Task: structure prediction
Amino acid sequence: MRRANRLSDILPLIYIVDDDPAVCRALKRLLRSWGMQVRTFASGQELLSALSGSHHADCSLIDVQMPDMTGLEVQERIKLAGVDLPVIFITAHEEDGVEERAMRAGAAGFLRKPFSDEALVGLIRNAIYCRRMHAARPGQETEKPFGIQK
Result:
């Protein structure tokens, strides 16, 4: 196996949080086909427990409507924990003001199901790129988004 020697050679890790196993499987297959690593969680609490470790994902996809904790609550707890993890929300529900609240709270994107593969991957790439730009020190050049090919 070839060793990654550039930042763009490292496959991005995406966390998916959705209480529907079928959605997790479908998104996992899709993102892997675009050259991404994926880890899935059935609840916000599972994700929050995983965030206590030292390695974090490059981006997260979080369902808005989940039984124990809403996606917006998960986003709030991530921020309170001081974890730099871009959040893209996905939902099948039309709720007034949810998208606006999510974006005001710092979400990297918001998609209503059904959405196109390209729209999702585009948001993920943009979120990762913006995170890298924000993390880069002044005067230090940051590479373009991951070498995700499709």
Observations:
- The domain at 11-135 is CATH 3.40.50.2300 (Rossmann fold).
- Confidence is low (pLDDT under 50) at residues 1-8, 141-150.
